[in-house]
Amino acid sequence: xxxxxxxxxxxxxxxxxxxxxxxxxxxxxxxxxxxxxxxxxxxxxxxxxxxxxxxxxxxxxxxxxxxxxxxxxxxxxxxxxxxxxxxxxxxxxxxxxxxxxxxxxxxxxxxxx
Length: 113
What we know:
The protein is α/β, with parallel strands linked by helices and 113 residues long. It is built from two helices and five strands, in the order E-H-E-E-E-H-E. It has one domain.
């Protein structure tokens, strides 16, 4: 892969669970293990962070927004893992989708007005 484009870094991205449950075992260990695996092949660890999450069913539409304190330590720990591996960390995605419940469309139905 490097031989095809030696001038640019290889970036591997991973999803960082921002929910409070993402900090609990066994999820936390899985996060670190995924990061270490990606750092073994990449120059840059990209982090995909989505602090706002929609939950939509036919009966309800909710938006959950996790406060920074519930996930900041996970991001900092991943940055530390990258630093130990002498790699960079980038935020590769940060809530790019406009996830608002009133705008969600479910499969087989039309969007809400």
